[in-house]
Amino acid sequence: MEAYQQWLPTIGWTYKVTLTTKYTLSSRAARRMMERLFNRLKSKVFNQERILMYWVAEKYKLKDGQHLHMLLQVPKGYKKGVEKMINNAYQIISAAYRNREYYRTDIQRFNPNSNGAKYFAKDLWKIATDFDILY
Question: For residues 34 and 56, what is the distance between their CA atoms, to the nearest angstrom?
Fold first, then answer.
């Protein structure tokens, strides 16, 4: 855990993201969803350029299931409309569009001064049900 706390803030993260669904998301389904999201972002949004994703599945405190957090590093030069493209990719891979629904996303530019990476490394680690780094 200490290695993550030291390493995560050194990455030039671009976005901090929270993703939810309207259905109960198991750990296995969360992993599959994040792998599909990574593959879609890499192939459809960033044209096979290198991206880096660190994600954590967090159990809800008051209900069954979990939601997802991720840090995302995207290639330099992608600025305009990226948040919308990330959201669109998530709505597609989560089947929200297919089910005529919209799943809540919170996509923010990463602020290195906000302790966001520390939160991912230390606080979420304690309650995470699964996590991974995809590149």
Answer: 9
